[in-house]
Design goal:
Chain lengths: 557, 346
């Protein structure tokens, strides 16, 4: 490994035309206003000083069953009401939040956090070290949050309140990714009094120390958040301390993309989540568009290395070489979502190895040669490769709608056509959400390839996605069933190193091994996007996984 | 309408006298009361069996599908799609009794139903009755509104255009009905949304359940249904117009509109009444798409989310509710028959 590019910033802000030279901007805005649907007025220039008041209407794509939990759709919501111990800033640095300071023991097993003083949960319960202990116990011992378990389950030993403002976390092994993990909203601290109310109450109204409280939830329609007037625990990377400027948030559930973007153009909503690719250009011209390139595992095709044709590394490489994935992604997403050639870690992740992204360029001749070499050297009358009388068939199972969007499905169809040229017969199997999540397509016999992604602020995600799947310590997240003790050793060493350069080197080597073995074929980055009404300022997406933050947002008068 | 729309008009067998003369003056009163009572009890028992049958089918379908329910719940909570270890699954299996033999699970579930307990949602941790109750009104508004609007549209079209001397008028009416009946909900909904809400801004794009926001969803459901009702009514209308009593009414000097409204329509609506019983149930399934396009809360969304999560108590609860609507709607259809057609009262 030689060079490791700095991660691309995860958030790409596309300010409106007002960033251009004034004369041009005016002309452009005037032109836009003429062709814009009624209601989208050209923005007044920013006045500078934040103004209080107003309610932000956020139009969102789907409604989770509970307002907090281990799913990203729940993290978006719980971020509004819960604070975490630490936050991650735009440079990937960890900054104070509910924990003002922290240190780790020499052996990297005991983490000591100094907590903010005088903070209260919105139900009046004091925030102290015991409250943090109660949350860790709830997440891990009581299995209250399975995503926390996925991160910390194999590392967590115990937690303890040394004194009211000192929290001590003991790990069983060093874990350098601890702080970035804690920055995600899954690790938001809830009031222990509220947790004791039981699952139904917590589902409907999680209670934290955050900038907003849950005011009400009309299922299927809207979740209302009200400002917490006593808020005094914003993270260090917030633009201001103290209560939010706006009175509240109306979080509307608008599943239909036409309606969602329509809500913005008619002025009914101030923010829409997940800008449709077909509206992207229009959105960029009239609104502030923010795109978040999710760090962690990109959307990649995990190839089954223990059953079927992909057990042979030459066939895996042939498949990669037979695909012009960049073109497939560009045409499916109309250029809005970037191609990602690295199949294991996405470009915005600290520790990303940029070199491996070019390891498997589109090269049908190489693909054909590799297949010949692997014994798939004859073709049947339909043009598909054959070996020992068996056709080269590949079953790709994908979570339609749940994991893979309609555009993503188009990418897969493009690939299906491309590889047919070389002689692969691909069958695409769309799996419903309940089939996929109930484990019907989890075993090695159920697919040859399966696309997936995993949002994570660190390349330490490799420990979740490629730790060995062994009988005594199963790892079902290893969807390629690829077991390599040397690889696991590299990842564990990276996870145990506190030296950033050393971490990057080790994570980079791990990515190189996975790329050489063509275990996972990179397709595109998981992205989220917001289009924001120009009159609403200072909306930002936090760094760890793109949760929208409204604490700093304010309306121009 | 949905793909389940019947191609021929089912006509319910006319129910005999529902209005029972039980006055003491009538020497047969007691006996007739008993007969009536028996019939009512019979109907209630049949309805309960229908509901239990619906619940059983859902229960079996959802539990026997490939895959594991505890894995599904755990995965949905964390947003992953992976296999789980026995240790991870144990608490969930214990909580919901997924480890018990299927017969025991079924008996527990049905036992609860018989006590009036629909169970607790796996995903939302709330009682099913609460989950359904909370979304009942928006859906009822939508379904009843659509049914009423469909009737108005269908009757106006038929009364104004059916059996006219001008071929063009008749053709326009029946053509419009055929077109309306074949329009898919999703297409119509998106067109109405884009044109009337997004571009013209006459209606809100996301107004929830406010009256203004209810207009377009109701229209979306009503237009295809109006097509069906109109077609069913028109055939009968044309037939009745040829009947001798129409000629005699005209001979008595009655105006054309009077004849159409007072004599012909009365006979012609019977098939559409029958169709309405079915339509009320079908509207609930159409609601799934319409609710999603117009961002409306309602039972459709509850059902989709519950099926995605194999939240058996909620799925079964919604299905039983829809079955109950069918049962009640059919009773109402029978009653409506006797009101519209006096011959059925004897």
């Amino acid at each position: 490994m030689s060079t490791h590019a700095r991660p691309r910033p995860a958030v790409r802000r596309r300010p409106r035309a007002s960033g251009l030279r004034p004369a041009l901007a005016v002309a452009l805005l005037a032109g836009l206003a003429a062709c814009a649907p009624a209601g989208a007025e050209p923005a007044a220039p920013t006045t500078g000083e934040p103004v209080e008041g107003g309610t932000i209407v956020h139009a969102h794509v789907q409604e989770p069953p509970c307002l907090w939990g281990g799913w990203i759709q729940q993290a978006y919501l719980s971020r509004q009401v819960l604070d975490s111990l630490v936050s991650q800033d735009e440079d990937g640095e960890i900054v104070p939040w509910l924990a003002t300071d922290w240190s780790v023991s020499e052996d990297q097993l005991v983490w000591t956090f100094t907590l903010a003083e005088g903070v209260e949960f919105t139900d009046g319960t004091p925030f102290d070290a015991q409250a943090v202990v109660d949350n860790f116990e709830f997440w891990i011992t009581e299995q209250g949050n399975s995503t926390v378990l996925a991160y910390l389950g194999t590392y967590y030993e115990s937690s303890r309140a040394v004194d009211p403002t000192t929290f001590e976390l003991t790990l069983s092994r060093p874990y350098s990714s601890l702080l970035p993990a804690l920055a995600q909203a899954y690790f938001g601290i809830q009031s222990p009094t509220a947790l004791a109310r039981g699952p139904e109450a917590n589902c409907e109204e999680p209670i934290g120390t955050g900038p907003f409280t849950v005011e009400g939830w009309e299922r299927g329609s809207v979740i209302r958040f009200a400002r917490n007037p006593d808020y005094a625990s914003a993270p260090a990377n917030a633009l201001h301390q103290g209560p939010a400027y706006v009175d509240g948030i109306e979080w509307r559930i608008v599943p239909d993309p036409v309606a969602r973007f329509g809500a913005l153009t008619t002025g009914e909503a101030h923010v829409v989540y997940d800008v449709p690719a077909t509206q992207w250009t229009a959105a960029e011209q009239q609104y502030e568009v923010q795109q978040y390139i999710t760090p962690g595992r990109p959307v990649a095709l995990g190839l089954n290395t223990v059953a079927g044709p992909f057990t042979d590394v030459r066939v895996r490489k042939a498949f990669a070489a037979a695909t012009d994935r960049e073109a497939a992604v560009r045409s499916a997403f109309l250029g809005v979502v970037p191609f990602e050639g690295n199949g294991t870690v996405s470009a915005s992740t600290p520790g990303y190895n940029a070199e491996v992204a070019d390891d498997h360029p589109y090269d049908p001749d190489t693909a054909a040669a590799l297949l010949d070499e692997a014994g798939w050297d004859s073709t049947d009358d339909e043009g598909y490769r054959v070996k020992d009388g068996e056709r080269l068939e590949v079953r790709i199972v994908y979570g339609a709608g749940s994991i893979i969007t309609p555009e993503g499905a188009t990418v897969l169809q493009n690939l299906q056509e491309q590889v047919a040229e070389v002689g692969f017969q691909v069958t695409l199997v769309p799996a419903t959400r309940d089939e996929l999540f109930s484990g019907k397509f989890s075993g090695p016999e159920s697919y040859d390839a399966k696309p997936g992604y995993w949002t994570s602020p660190t390349a330490g995600i490799l420990h979740i996605t490629f730790r060995q799947h062994l009988e005594e310590s199963p790892n079902f997240s290893n969807s390629s069933f690829y077991n390599d003790p040397e690889l696991e050793d590299l990842i564990v060493r990276a996870n145990s190193s506190l030296d950033r350069a050393e971490q990057d080197r080790l994570y980079g080597e791990a990515q190189q091994i996975l790329s050489d073995e063509a275990v996972s074929i990179g397709l595109y980055t998981q992205t989220t996007s917001l289009a924001v009404d120009p009159r609403l300022n200072d909306v930002w997406l936090e760094q760890s996984q793109g949760e929208p933050v409204y604490h700093d947002a304010w309306f121009e008068r | 309408m949905s793909a389940t729309a019947p191609t021929t008009t089912p006509v319910a067998p006319p129910t005999e006298a529902l209005a029972v003369d039980a006055s003491p003056a009538n020497p047969w009163g007691r006996a007739r009361l008993l007969v009536a009572l028996r019939r009512v009890v019979g109907r209630v028992v049949a309805a309960v069996l229908v509901l239990l049958g619906a619940a059983t089918v859902v229960f079996l379908a959802q539990t026997l599908l490939p895959g594991d329910r505890a894995t599904l719940l755990l995965n949905l909570r964390s947003g992953e799609a992976v296999e789980r270890t026995a240790a991870e699954l144990a608490p969930i299996n214990e909580q919901y009794g997924f480890d018990d033999p299927l017969a025991v699970q079924y008996a527990t579930y049905v036992g609860g139903l018989l006590r009036g307990d629909l169970g607790v949602s796996y995903q939302r941790h709330a009682p099913v009755a609460e989950v359904i109750g909370g979304q009942l009104w928006p859906t009822a508004q939508l379904a009843l509104g659509a049914l009423a609007a469909a009737w108005v549209l269908a009757l106006v079209s038929v009364v104004v255009t059916a059996g006219r001397r001008s071929r063009a008028v008749t053709a326009a009416g029946s053509g419009a009905e055929a077109l309306a009946a074949s329009v898919p909900h999703y297409w119509l909904g998106v067109i109405l949304l884009v044109v009337l809400a997004v571009n013209l801004q006459w209606f809100p794009v996301m107004g929830g359940t406010s009256p203004a926001a209810t207009v377009l969803p109701v229209l979306t459901l009503a237009v295809p249904l109006a097509g069906f009702l109109g077609q069913a009514t028109r055939d009968e209308f044309d037939r009745v117009l040829e009947q001798p009593f129409v000629t005699s009414a005209r001979a008595r000097g009655m105006g054309d509109t009077g004849v159409r409204l007072r004599h012909v329509l009365r006979h012609a609506v019977l098939p559409a009444i029958t169709l309405s019983g079915w339509a009320l149930g079908a509207l609930l399934s159409g609601a799934v798409i319409v609710e999603s396009v117009f961002s409306r809360p309602g039972l459709g969304q509850v059902l989709v989310a519950a099926v995605d999560a194999r939240d058996v108590p909620v799925v079964a609860g919604v299905v039983m509710f829809v079955a109950a609507v069918y049962v009640v709607a059919n009773v109402l259809v029978d009653l409506a028959y006797t009101l519209v057609d006096p011959r059925r009262r004897s």
